Amino acid sequence: MPQVPMMRTELSPELAELRGPIRRFVTDQLEPLAARIDAEGEIPDAAWDLMRGQGWLGMLLAEADGGGGADLPTYCLVMEEVARSHRCFTLLLDATSGLTPIAIARHGTAAQKDRWLKGLATGRLRAAFGLTEPGAGSDAAAITTRATKVEGGWKIEGRKQWISGGHAADVVMVMAVTDPAQRARGGIGAFLVPRGTPGFDVTRIDTTIGSEAIKLGELTFTDCVVPDEALLGDPGQGFAIAMGSLSNGRLGVSAACIGAADRLLEMSIEHAKQRSTFGQRLADRQAIQWMLADSHAEIEVSRAFLYETLRKAAAGEDLGNFAAICKLACSEMVGRVADRAVQIHGGAGLMRGVPVERFYRDVRHYRVGEGASEVLRMVIARELVK
Ligand SMILES: Cc1cc2nc3c(=O)[nH]c(=O)nc-3n(C[C@H](O)[C@H](O)[C@H](O)COP(=O)(O)OP(=O)(O)OC[C@H]3O[C@@H](n4cnc5c(N)ncnc54)[C@H](O)[C@@H]3O)c2cc1C
């Protein structure tokens, strides 16, 4: 595989040193599992074991909580590198350091952390994040799942859909309305609902345009009573907790977009050098060169912007809308890079089972999940014109 001449924008000299060993591990150890994931439609235990062995599961959680105590730049470097192989590997990072684990780490009581975080950090337990409903996606404040106070706990009623890994999760963080008069202004709670709780059922499993191994659960709650200890934070804090987790996740998603785009460009260069038409290599045609150049330029600019945002985050600076800008720019960028990659490959980029085709489908998720592009634009523009 040709090494794209990166400008070598790096987060720090220390992280620059880490990139080579991480890439070698991903290429030698994880990449052989990529084809298996596609063939079996499941993420094999071997992937969890290998990533656990590297200390990548739960790496963002504090060591006291059983995590790796890594910082966000290191997490994003690993995210970028595993995304060069298969989107499913990014999901393992997300499941163990992402939306729900981070929410528990930030807002959980000592008992909640003790019960969930050590297991989540090692991948022994699986968590899911339950916000979206049939009637509420981008407009998350419109959720109707209801949590009503009962003696000693809360009764949850409602339905969540498209919850990543929700079908197999040991615990789901369920956002539910606790005060209909307040809703997003302090009337939504976040509840940690364990699998097996009476009244909590997985009623459907959806797959998407992306890898078959990516499964989304429909979760139905009927007279589902959880104890007071299941409530994360205050009864009105759930919306803020959920939005805080989503905002945190945007830089990780951006890193995954850059890693996938990098690999797509490498595959495009390799194909363009090998394939000849009308007696000349595709790589020597200006039409193809311009596509390669545009992809390279966009990847480098995106990476530089992500790293600058990560530096600000590491320095404790207020990011404002930079995480949203980053996610918008990187997810749109990888869509364009994937489209060019398929075009450069011609029919060979459309055949089931070739990596380009799989990347093209998988990266389509990024412009919808964790803040669709239009909603991010709305958030960014609102700030500009206020
Ligand atoms: C692979 C995948 C994994 C997911 N995992 C989870 C998960 O783990 N947990 C979870 O809770 N949810 C999850 N979701 C759901 C995801 O968060 C929602 O799909 C997303 O928030 C968008 O909501 P929606 O699909 O209902 O689209 P809608 O909100 O119906 O929006 C449809 C389209 O309209 C646009 N739009 C919406 N409002 C506006 C506006 N005001 N102006 C202009 N355009 C607008 C949107 O950008 C989008 O393009 C997942 C989705 C996918 C695809």
From TrEMBL:
Residues 13-123 form the Acyl-CoA dehydrogenase/oxidase N-terminal domain. PROSITE patterns: ACYL_COA_DH_1. Keywords: FAD, Flavoprotein, Oxidoreductase. Pfam families: Acyl-CoA_dh_1, Acyl-CoA_dh_M, Acyl-CoA_dh_N. Residues 236-384 form the Acyl-CoA dehydrogenase/oxidase C-terminal domain. Residues 128-224 form the Acyl-CoA oxidase/dehydrogenase middle domain. Belongs to the acyl-CoA dehydrogenase family. This is Acyl-CoA dehydrogenase. It comes from Falsiroseomonas stagni DSM 19981.
